[in-house]
Design a protein that fits this description.
- With 462 residues, this protein is an alpha/beta fold.
- It has 14 helices and 22 strands.
- Helix 13 packs across helix 14.
- Bound molecules: zinc ion.
- Zinc ion is lined by residues 61, 63, 162, 187.
């Protein structure tokens, strides 16, 4: 029995772990490498195993850095099942199809350039149709229901509280009369986050493969975060401009709508028109609305009292681009939620073009902004930005709200580990070097844990 680490080693994308048990191969995660273009080229490389020889795949959650290479795995010969939570399968349907669409668009653009240079055209990583075909492989499970997915491998999903359907993966593996339990944390949620429950503790394991994204950070309290957001929205009201919120379509968008519902009068949301200007955000919200069974106590209460916790009396859903363009006419009183989350594409850029040069506009940054993105330059105080071929001045007030995170911080990660009664061995993944090292030191110091940091292609025996 062994695990080979094939991705998310000393970085936060491209999760991929190969488990070998009793002559079978089980792949946990099949994620995209994301980031700079050169880095993303790695996604085209051959897998480090034969796709056709994998016997089963398990996904922790729908984010593309965990699921986004799945259609490629299938395109290259994988024919077996993909086990995951039902909500993850539904979110994957939306996200993988969108990824396929973007692949096709990217390649069209790249091939035009290649043609001019006399180079051969390239193929998309996978198409929208190929992404759709991947859906047929999904076999879904609920949390807490053990299932033997291969002879000698029993899978149980536990709630990770990160995005809807996100799971901690428990694998009980048996070979030659020995049984070992491995726990893959997946991405662990931020305790106290809206809508979802906190990450489920697990009492026992032989090995824990644990994420470390924020292993060196502490988040602000939820209370302070909501107060800050409420303060900005309440005071913006008198300014008579629009509020623009770039948001990730899965998770953050639903958290915003939910927060608006919870603080509807308190924040003066009733004095605004709220636009969800994102077809994908609308679809993801529908998936969230269908899975009330997965809500935490507060969201369940709201659901029982007033139905859909993401619906507001003044919410407008803009699916078609015509609907989106109509919002451009509105000079004040609109809260516009649109993608992309880091402002690198999507409809938010159009709203910037129409609003960001006006001084009563507010931009609310509610998610992580990677270096080199338009969102990051706004956070860093850019006075001018480039939108298409135009330079646009930034007169809007840009607010950065730091506390909204879908990931556990250092305390959250340590608290989750502490609930293991037998102090299992840990291998850290899904973190940059500094985050991993800081977390490793803390786990060792506070919990006396034996902690390793996964390196690429490293194999750990069980
Ligand atoms: Zn994630």
């Amino acid at each position: 029995m062994q695990i080979e680490f094939l991705g998310a080693t000393r970085e936060v994308t491209g999760s991929c772990f190969l488990v070998r048990v009793g002559g079978q191969r089980l792949l946990v995660e099949c994620g995209l490498v994301q980031g700079a273009r050169e880095h993303e080229e790695h996604n085209r490389e051959p897998f480090l195993f034969a796709a056709a020889e994998i016997d089963a795949v398990v996904l922790t959650h729908a984010h593309l850095d965990h699921s986004g290479r799945l259609p490629l795995l299938i395109k290259r010969g994988y024919t077996g099942p993909v086990y995951t939570h039902k909500a993850t399968a539904e979110l994957c349907a939306i996200m993988l199809e969108d990824a396929g669409y973007l692949n096709e668009k990217d390649v069209q653009w790249a091939n035009k350039k290649r043609q001019r240079k006399g180079l051969k055209p390239i193929e998309p990583l996978y198409t929208r149709d190929e992404a759709r075909a991947a859906q047929r492989h999904f076999q879904t499970l609920d949390y807490g229901q053990p299932r033997e997915i291969l002879p000698g491998a029993t899978l149980t999903l536990r709630d990770a509280g990160h995005i809807l359907g996100s799971a901690i993966v428990e694998l009980e593996l048996s070979e030659a009369g020995r049984t070992r339990k491995v726990v893959f944390s997946g991405d662990l949620g931020h305790k106290g986050a809206p809508i979802l429950r906190d990450p489920e503790p697990i009492a026992q394991a032989d090995l824990v493969v644990m994420e470390s994204t924020y292993g060196n950070r502490l988040h602000r309290s939820w209370e302070a975060t909501w107060q800050e957001m409420g303060g900005i929205i309440s005071s913006a009201r008198s300014g008579q401009g629009n509020i623009l919120i770039p948001a990730f379509t899965v998770g953050r968008t639903q958290e915003l709508l939910y927060a608006f519902k919870c603080h509807y009068e308190e924040w003066g949301i009733d004095g605004w028109q709220v636009f969800l200007d994102s077809p994908m955000g609308i679809e993801a919200t529908e998936v969230y609305a269908r899975h009330a069974k997965l809500y935490d106590e507060q969201a369940s209460r709201i659901y029982e009292q007033s139905g859909d916790p993401f619906d507001l009396p003044n919410l407008h859903l803009s699916r078609r681009s015509e609907d989106s363009m109509q919002i451009n006419q509105i000079r004040s009183g609109a809260i516009i939620i649109a993608g992309s989350g880091m402002c690198t594409g999507g409809r938010i850029r159009h709203h910037f073009k129409h609003n960001i040069w006006r001084e009563h506009t507010h931009v609310l940054i509610v998610g992580f902004q990677a270096r080199g993105t338009l969102g990051r330059s706004l956070v860093d105080g850019a006075k001018r930005i480039r939108l298409w071929a135009e330079t646009v001045q930034v007169k809007a007030t840009v607010h950065t709200i730091g506390g909204l995170s879908a990931h556990a911080d250092q305390d959250g990660l340590v608290d989750w580990y502490r609930r293991f009664e037998n102090r299992p061995r840990v291998v850290l993944v899904h973190g940059e070097l500094e985050a991993m090292e800081t977390l490793a030191q803390r786990l060792h110091r506070d919990c006396r844990a034996e902690v390793g940091q996964a390196s690429f292609r490293q194999t750990v025996a069980l």
